């Protein structure tokens, strides 16, 4: 049993638990899986992005209920407060759970699952060590469960977190989400690659901060070394928060360290966080969605943390057609939901928009 499996206290390998639960829930219609069409877009500097089209999600029930017209206000439904057995994958750890693993009720990618705090903690607060540690353990457990014939890891998870009003967060109860990279991939867009893997250009001469200069929005990544302690993992998270806030508030100045990134129990800015076993990345957000008048007066494209994986989704056929035929719009959308890129590397990796 791997160290990650021991930390999670799972009775079976994580991949098997999720796949079996997903298969049964799909068969029993406990989850509402929606097929998507996929196309490959590229930024002006060549970064590949998946564009997914899913008209079925336009009919997805709203989290707080659609019948608010004249009825008294009711508490918003919390899908993580007491999830049904059909969706519950595991309690983490099993003996005294602080977190749960649960299937996404409305997936568009197979084996999409979620880690949520057992107690209802706020999505807008800074993540705690245990949130990151268990997420990191899930990533390693998944990768440990499957190896190719050469003994190499052949399966990976992509984790993401949406925090703040502009991040694309759909639930206030703290949760992070997992997507298997192999299930994200599509034969309709074979040249797609996980965006985190491209963030290899140094953004600071001394600190372990990196970026992809082909992206038109502010972001930073930092490597996660093998055997990383929970304390060091958390320090890297705080480094990214600090770097993102410094770049947003003081883009023309040297990196400001030790900034206050939390106030009154909330992060002071909206952001997306993403993680694999080897990389942690952040993207501060200025807005959730960007208007797309090319598709109509009320058209807009919203993005969440899958942005850091290199994927975005539309629910309207006109948006799907317009974006596929005019790739130049992609840069405007990506730049519009974030902030201008910043680099403190003296050799100059700053992107001029």
TrEMBL record:
GO terms for molecular function: ATP binding; ATP:ADP adenylyltransferase activity. Signal peptide: none annotated. One of its GO terms (biological process) is nucleotide metabolic process. The lineage of its organism: Eukaryota, Fungi, Dikarya, Ascomycota, Pezizomycotina. This is Uncharacterized protein. Residues 12-184 form the Ap4A phosphorylase 1/2 N-terminal domain. Residues 61-79 have a biased composition (Basic and acidic residues). Gene3D superfamilies: 3.30.428.70. Residues 60-80 are annotated as: Disordered. It comes from Capronia coronata CBS 617.96. It comes from the Eukaryota. Residues 213-340 form the ATP adenylyltransferase C-terminal domain. It holds the Pfam family ATP_transf.
């Amino acid at each position: 049993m791997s160290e990650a499996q021991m930390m999670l206290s799972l009775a079976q390998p994580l991949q098997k638990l999720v796949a079996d639960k997903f298969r049964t829930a799909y068969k029993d219609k406990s989850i509402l899986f929606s097929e998507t069409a996929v196309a490959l877009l590229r930024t002006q500097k060549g970064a590949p992005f998946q564009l997914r089209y899913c008209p079925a999600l336009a009919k997805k029930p709203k989290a707080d209920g659609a019948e608010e017209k004249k009825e008294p206000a009711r508490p918003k439904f919390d899908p993580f407060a007491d999830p049904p057995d059909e969706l519950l994958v595991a309690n983490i750890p099993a003996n005294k759970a602080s977190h749960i693993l649960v299937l996404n009720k409305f997936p568009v990618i197979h084996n999409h699952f979620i880690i949520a705090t057992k107690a209802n903690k706020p999505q807008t607060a800074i993540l705690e060590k245990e949130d990151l540690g268990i997420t990191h353990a899930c990533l390693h457990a998944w990768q440990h469960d499957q190896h190719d014939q050469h003994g190499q890891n052949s399966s990976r998870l992509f984790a993401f977190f949406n925090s703040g009003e502009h991040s694309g967060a759909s639930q206030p109860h703290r949760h992070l989400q997992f997507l298997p990279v192999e299930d994200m991939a599509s034969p309709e867009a074979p040249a797609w690659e996980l965006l985190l893997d491209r963030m290899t250009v140094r953004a600071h001469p001394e600190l372990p901060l990196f970026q992809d200069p082909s992206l038109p929005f502010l972001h930073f990544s930092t490597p996660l070394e093998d055997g990383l302690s929970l304390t060091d993992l958390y320090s890297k998270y705080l480094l990214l928060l600090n770097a993102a806030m410094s770049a947003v508030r003081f883009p023309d100045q040297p990196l400001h360290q030790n900034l206050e990134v939390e106030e009154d129990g909330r992060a002071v800015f909206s952001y997306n966080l993403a993680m694999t076993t080897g990389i942690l990345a952040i993207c501060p957000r200025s807005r959730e969605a960007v208007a797309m008048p090319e598709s109509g007066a009320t058209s807009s494209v919203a993005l969440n943390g899958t942005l850091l994986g290199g994927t975005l989704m539309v629910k309207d056929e006109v948006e799907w057609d317009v974006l596929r035929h005019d790739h130049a719009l992609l840069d405007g959308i990506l730049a519009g939901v974030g902030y201008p890129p910043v680099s403190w590397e003296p050799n100059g990796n700053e992107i001029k928009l």
